[in-house]
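Worked example 4.2. Below are the chains of a multi-component assembly; read each line carefully before continuing.
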Amino acid sequence: MFGILPQLIINGIIAGALYALLSLGLSLSFGILGYINFAHADFAVLGGYFFYTAYVVYAQNIFVSALFSIMATTIIVLIFKKCTYDPLKNKPPIIPMLASIGVISVVQNFIQIVAGGDIKSIPRIGKNYSFFDNGITFTGMQVWQLGLSIACMMLLVLFLKKTKTGKAIRAVSDNSQAASIVGISTERITTIIFIIASILVAIGGIFISYEYSLYPSMGTMLIVKAFVPVIFGGVGNIAGTIIGAFAIGIIENIGIGLSFGSFAISANYKDAFAFLVMLFILIWKPSGLFGEKSEQAIRKA
Amino acid sequence: MFNSGKLVKAGIVAGFSLLAVAGGCLSDGSVGPNLLTDGTTVKIGAIAPLSGSASAYGEIVRNVTNLAVDKVNLSGGINGKKLEIVFEDGQCDGKYGTAAAEKLVNVDKVNVIMGGTCSGETLGAATVTEPAKVILISPGASSPKISEAGEYVFRTYPSDNGKGAVLAQYAINQKWKKVGTIAEQSDYTLGLKDVFDKGLKDGGVESYVETYTKESSDFRTPLLKLKNDGAEALFIDPQTPDKGLLILNQLKEMNWSPKLLTQEVLGTDTATLAKVKAQAEGMITADVVPPEDGGITQLRADYKTKYNKDLNYESIGSGAYDAVMVLKDAISASKGDVDKLKAYLYSLKDYKGVNGTFGFDVNGDPTLKHALLIIKDGKAVPVKSE
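Applying the procedure described above to all two chains together yields the following structure tokens:
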């Protein structure tokens, strides 16, 4: 029964690292902007397509392609910020949230028109690793994915704790009015948040293109995977969000992987686990396992 | 004393209701325009997946159809009138199939539709065409459910009852004890999976099945489960070739190399097989095999000349070609009358098509057989010719 458990946990950790990259940007922006940017995961998909364009279509070096993807995604996100968030920032949070749903359809249809609706796969590079007589296997790319995701998380925590800008972000997140009274420009902080979130989603998007391949509508499901850890950890709680992302990855893989006698859950229901966790948290501890603010924030949204 | 306003309103409502009922009766009883005598061309509709991943074979259907139409028109059309095809995108999905059929039936007023290419599309379209008494003839849909989709529903590609049985028999002959199946959630793939699964169980083989949704692209956990169940062979049953490619990639990543079985979506897609040549070598599939003397050589050559590409998905392409040519004969023989056309199709016997010699049975299914194929050097070749 537990023969495949170690592999399931590894699959879960690898998926969790990816979800964490998406969740962190969402958590930061939710904490500060006060609304959920539902188009967040679609920007990751866009990042994946930018990477695909540079790496596969124009056959550029992998690092050049990654850099191009990060830059292009950031620019696109900032354009959307200018066009959708900025004009709506003084409206009730429901308005920009609805606008973000509109952005989803713009981004998905844009991808569909430009790149087509078929699945784009990135050619496999690097070797595969296997241990314990194939009991545990993973790819070199997955090692990169895990390592880089953890590095990004650590850098983000250090940035928020140690730098002046990071402290300003936390100040705005705690109380934006008080922060602006002491001379912190909320305008500037918001732009920085968008840039950080774009960099994180673009990196996430590059790994998505390797792990899951790309198709235009994939953001719709990814946003759930990105959003649940935010609820899980408590809004704006970086550590909680990271733990939440890994938890979702592991729970969904174990959920569909283990069978008890003749009882087993089909892989069809994989996505349902994220919803179940969200439901459970919202009923049992609406403020998130590690946070105080999510209930408030959700009510506000 | 009495309220004249109310009476007038009631009268209007009653009048409109009567009109609606009468209109309904009229439209139910009337037959659409005659294919030959009405309009300046012989207009028929077509439904195929023209966008999305399934367009890999939707494109083949469209190209071959256009090629066949050109051929018909160059040789004088049908009774002197040009054949015209209106294409709609069914996206390999039931709801788009329904929408496409609604547009073709209600807006373009066609009473013959060639399509859909996928089973889901075809079943979706049949919900519109059957009550409207519109002929639906599919060049590629193979779900066993289509046999019961209606009396106006035909196909030139045979039911998966045959394909699933041939594949299951192969597994039984190999004396495999445990066989895994990874199938997509769609009408075609689930229909085939059911036949294969039943065939295995009837033959005493343990069958393990995992399914995934159309949106999935991570198959690691279901594959891991099948591996853990001890499956010696794996039947890959995707709706689009992309998903088949992803499954093969992920199998490789997890260092699992079971014996492989698949169906035509992956097994006769030379473009996808070329990407995984080494891994796909020896994979078994089952499909209709166009006989070399039945016009496939000519079709390959014409396709290459017109599109400057090799004909991929030969059995589906041939199905489309045969559908157009059968319709040409049928429209001509029935003088454009839909009910006579239907009767003509049911009475058709020993038609020499590209996919082989066939007629239609009582369910509108062609009397064609499946053969076992093996992938050699990126191409599916008949097992016997090894």
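Take a moment to check your reading of the output against the notes. Chain B is about 45% helix and 15% strand. The first helix of chain B runs from residue 4 to 29.
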